[in-house]
Amino acid sequence: MEMKTSIIIPVYQAAAFLRETIESVRAQDETDWELLLVDDCSLDGSREIIKEYAARDDRIHLIRQTVNQGAAAARNRGVDEARGRYLAFLDSDDLWKCNRLSAGLSFMEEKQIGFVFSGYEFADQNGVGTGRIVRVPETLSYRQALKNTTIFTSTVLFDTHIIPRELLRMPLVKSEDTAAWWNILRNGHTAYGLDQNLVLYRRSTGTLSSNKLEAIRRIWNLYRRVEGLSLPYSAYNFVFYAVRATLRRV
């Protein structure tokens, strides 16, 4: 029988938060899953934590990268080795609510759709919710997603019977997750928003996502170099992106 859901976590120097993240998966009220933790040559004890959990829960698996290649390559390795029909991504410092999987799967199966993303809440470094919850639209097409980068990696869920696995592989560029969602949508699929707060997005000081200038550069690079959009159309989409990104954080 086909396993239901594969969960992929790229791991690099994540020892400080990794136990909490793994425990949030183990606490799911949906229990038919495998957790693939792809260690990208961590030196801080992350691998030992994964081994510890794998030894006592046979749903948890350590996958070791032999060379540090970054989060996109780690996620792609997980996609290649995943055995589940449904595929979810989770970042190594984020936390899932206990009904994150069951709610997403029920929504997906009820509507017979292949790409779901949910709402989420910003959390502090201790994983405590700040009360700032991001709401999501009912659907996003490719053109809409260019102006609205609200799809957050730790909230997505895919049905590989509808979305081909090759489309779930991420390009080796910065903001690879957003580039991957755009690629899926550009290929004729639609993303469906489940407007429930199911994930805690931990915002750690010093992370790439906390560097606003770098975030601007990454998104602009996606418009111009990855998507090949014209300068005027890139600027048009960027204005909407910037406004929405600011509103999500205030």
- Output the number of helix runs: 9
Q: How many beta strands in the DSSP annotation?
A: 10
Low-confidence stretches: none
Structural class comes to alpha/beta
Helix content: 40-55%
Radius of gyration: 17 Å
The fraction of residues assigned to DSSP E strands is 15-25%
The 3D shape can be described as globular
Please write the string of helix (H) and strand (E) elements.
EHEHEHEEHEEEHEHHEHH
Distance N to C terminus:
46 Å
Overall average pLDDT = 93
Task: Give the biggest beta sheet.
Answer: 10 strands, mixed
Task: Please tell me about this protein's structure.
This protein is of the alpha/beta class. Helix content is 40%, strand content 24%. The protein has helices at residues 15-26, 46-56, 71-81, 100-111, 142-147, 165-168, 176-186, 212-226, 231-249, and strands at 3-11, 33-39, 60-64, 84-89, 95-96, 115-123, 129-134, 139-140, 157-159, 191-202. Strands 1, 2, 3, 4, 5, 6, 7, 8, 9 and 10 form a ten-stranded mixed sheet that branches. Helix 1 (15-26) runs parallel beside helix 2. It is globular, with a radius of gyration of 17 Å. The protein starts with a strand and ends with a helix. The mean pLDDT is 93.
What key phrases describe this protein's structure?
250 residues, 10-stranded mixed sheet, alpha/beta
